[in-house]
């Protein structure tokens, strides 16, 4: 089942049954889930951008990830869902070696990044090199207490860009890319802390985009935001896939359904099922997946 | 009280009024203690001012010590204290901040760094005269710095180092993990994260710690008596700024010195009643200097808090 994505899944029957539980929870302003899934055109997987193979991970003696195998297709959005503590954030943080900041953690196995086949979690790979290639957006908006401009420019400065014109151009491009340029173009020198939560999060997305990462990781990027800010970020994520490969952790299943092309369901540190999002949400192959998305636990 | 958890409205009100009384009682006790402490400080300060009132005047600040109480002033003591504070700050800040950065950001958490941390905290509790003895052996006899401004500054720097280290560590620790992760996530090295983010965002706390340390050092008497401060100095150290290139002069570092608390101590120990007024006046000025430094610390903390809020 784990290799399904790799072998180009055929489009699922579109007239899948509307799911119980999920539809009733939807607000009137969001299209019903079945329509969203109907709309999803990319049930075919692009070539892999990254592949996790036999990935295990430990916090001390506690094994948090167990034998994860997953293909992340290029220029598509892959969502990781599952109940709290299932390891979805832990898995996401393997991709940019965030765990290395913590003592007593251990990786085993591989996450191979294409096309140069670097093993992201290999002991021979420098975590800083990995973070230069793979960007991340965090759960809570975490802008630096600096100006909007300096926030977005920081990654560029780290890469040795000193030329003011180039910095200004790339900051503008990144802010446009995160659909926030119009809101902040007159206050680039104001503190980013003066923005609203949704604006801060889009500045954080710009900050990650500015350095043109190959993969962009989102760790529950809207859990601290109101519904309107959430809608904007979701729209942005669906647009971003043209420029970057996206991996997103979300506890909100409707969000996974709205933004992602592929969905992976994790439970107790294991990858239970991965498939086209429309398939996962209408006709999951595993009982555990079905129980989770129909709201029987989690 | 009823046997069940359910209370009647009357019972709720009766119980509530008693609990609110307790609340008020606590406020009263707290206020009494607080104002008691403040009153003691105020009485002390006004007593000093009253006793020394006859001596306040321009002459008191511009005169050297003298055998005649009415001619004596605090010029050499005040200048000595300021020069010592400059040396202390210039030594304690970089050393203390560097030590704190290492312990907080770089040091692995093992038994060895654990011992270092416990010792740093313990150093804050070492009696100040012990630092004086250390300085006498090390700076005066071993390094031959003499009984100089440099020796005194280094001694007091050692004394306040634990305060600076602890305060710096606390403000480094206050920088949220999310900010560090954001910087690491963009590919920053540990030093870049520290230099570009952690350190700038904790400047307020670091400076506050330094100033609180200095305001402790300014009143220290025992260690600088131990290293041999003179109590009668009728000259000023060479000026640090000169008219000729390179406009800076470091001879003052090696100059003999006296300091405010030494001068006070000297005056207090004289039998002549007139010198007691001098001591009181000098004490009021020293206390004023300390309060002014604390005020600066509060102002710095306020400025930085306003700019940065997590």
Find the count of extended strands of chain B (DSSP E, 2+ residues). Answer: 0
Task: Assign the CATH superfamily of chain A.
Answer: P-loop containing nucleotide triphosphate hydrolases
Whole-number tally of structural domains of chain B: 2
Tally of helical runs of chain B = 12
CATH architecture type of the largest domain in chain B: Orthogonal Bundle
Structural class of chain B: mainly alpha
Helix/strand-derived class of chain A?
A: alpha/beta
Mean pLDDT value of chain B? 86
Radius of gyration of chain A (Å): 19 Å
Count of DSSP-assigned helices of chain A? 11
Give me the CATH superfamily of the largest domain in chain B: MetI-like
Largest sheet of chain A at a glance? 6 strands, mixed
What's the assembly state of these chains? heterodimer
Strand tally of chain A, please?
10
- Write out the strand line-up for the largest beta sheet of chain A, numbering strands in chain order: 6-7-8-3-9-10
CATH topology category name of the largest domain in chain B: MetI-like fold
Q: Largest interface here, residues on each chain?
A: A-B, 26 and 22 residues
Instruction: Give the name of the CATH architecture of chain A.
Output: 3-Layer(aba) Sandwich
Write the layout of secondary structure elements.
The complex is a heterodimer of chains A (298) and B (310).
Chain A (H helix, E strand, L loop, with lengths): L32 H7 L8 E12 L2 E12 L3 E5 L6 H7 L10 E9 L4 E2 L7 H7 E4 L10 H11 L5 H14 L3 H4 L12 H14 L4 E5 L7 H14 L4 E5 L3 H7 L2 E6 L2 E7 H6 L4 H7 L5
Parallel strand pairs in A: 3-8, 3-9, 6-7, 7-8
Antiparallel strand pairs in A: 1-2, 1-4, 4-5, 9-10
Helix pairs in contact in A: 4-5, 4-7, 5-7, 7-8
Chain B lengths: L8 H44 L5 H5 L12 H32 L4 H13 L4 H15 L6 H25 L3 H9 L4 H12 L1 H15 L4 H5 L33 H9 L4 H35 L3
């Amino acid at each position: 089942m784990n290799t399904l994505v790799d072998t180009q899944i055929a489009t699922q029957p579109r007239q899948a049954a509307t799911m119980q539980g999920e539809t009733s929870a939807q607000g009137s302003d969001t299209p019903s889930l079945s329509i969203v899934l109907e709309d999803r055109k990319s049930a075919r997987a692009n070539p892999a951008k990254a592949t996790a193979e036999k990935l295990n991970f430990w916090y001390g003696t506690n094994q948090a990830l167990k034998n994860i195998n997953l293909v992340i297709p290029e220029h598509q959005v892959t969502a990781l869902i599952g109940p709290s503590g299932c390891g979805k954030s832990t898995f996401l943080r393997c991709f940019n070696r965030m765990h290395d900041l913590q003592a007593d953690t251990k990786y085993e196995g591989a996450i191979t990044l294409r096309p140069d086949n670097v093993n992201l979690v290999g002991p021979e790979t420098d975590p800083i090199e990995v973070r230069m290639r793979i960007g991340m957006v965090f759960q809570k908006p975490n802008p630096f207490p600096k100006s909007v401009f300096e926030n977005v420019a920081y990654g560029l400065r780290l890469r040795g860009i000193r030329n003011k014109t180039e910095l200004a151009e790339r900051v503008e491009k990144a802010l446009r890319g995160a659909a926030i340029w119009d809101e902040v173009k007159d206050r680039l020198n104001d503190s980013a802390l003066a923005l609203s939560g949704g604006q801060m999060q889009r500045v954080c997305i710009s900050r990650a985009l500015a350095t043109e990462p190959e993969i962009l990781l989102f760790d529950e990027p809207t859990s601290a935001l109101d519904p309107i800010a959430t809608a904007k970020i979701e729209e942005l994520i669906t647009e971003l896939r043209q420029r970057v490969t996206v991996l997103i952790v979300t506890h909100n299943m409707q969000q996974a359904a709205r933004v992602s092309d592929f969905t992976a369901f994790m439970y107790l540190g294991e990858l239970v099922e991965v498939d086209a999002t429309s398939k996962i949400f209408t006709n999951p192959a595993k009982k555990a997946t079905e129980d989770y998305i129909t709201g029987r636990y989690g | 009280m009823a046997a069940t958890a359910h209370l009647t409205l009357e019972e709720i009100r009766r119980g509530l009024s008693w609990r609110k009384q307790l609340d008020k009682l606590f406020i009263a006790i707290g206020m009494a203690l607080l104002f008691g402490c403040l009153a003691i400080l105020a009485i002390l300060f006004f007593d000093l001012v009253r006793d020394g009132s006859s001596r306040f005047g321009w002459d008191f600040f511009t005169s050297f010590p003298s055998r005649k109480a009415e001619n004596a002033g605090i010029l050499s003591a005040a200048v000595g204290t300021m020069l010592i504070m400059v040396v202390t700050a210039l030594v304690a800040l970089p050393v203390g901040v560097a030590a704190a950065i290492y312990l907080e950001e770089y040091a692995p958490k093992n038994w060895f760094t654990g011992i270092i941390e416990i010792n740093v905290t313990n150093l804050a509790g070492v009696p100040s005269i012990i630092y004086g003895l250390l300085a006498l052996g090390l700076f005066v006899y071993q390094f031959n710095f003499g009984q100089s401004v440099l020796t005194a500054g280094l001694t007091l720097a050692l004394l306040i180092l634990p305060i600076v280290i602890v305060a710096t560590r606390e403000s480094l620790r206050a920088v949220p993990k999310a900010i560090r992760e954001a910087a690491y996530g963009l590919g920053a090295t540990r030093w870049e994260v520290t230099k570009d983010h952690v350190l700038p965002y904790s400047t307020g706390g670091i400076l506050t710690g330094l100033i609180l340390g200095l305001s402790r050092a300014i009143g220290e008497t025992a260690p600088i008596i131990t290293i041999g401060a003179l109590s009668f100095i009728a000259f000023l150290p060479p000026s640090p700024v000169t008219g000729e290139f390179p406009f800076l002069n470091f001879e003052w570092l090696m100059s003999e010195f006296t300091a405010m608390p030494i001068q006070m101590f000297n005056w207090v120990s004289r039998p002549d009643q007139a010198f007691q007024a001098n001591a009181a006046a000098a004490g009021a000025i020293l206390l004023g200097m300390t309060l002014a430094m604390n005020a600066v610390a509060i102002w710095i903390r306020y400025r930085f808090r306003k700019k940065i809020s997590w």
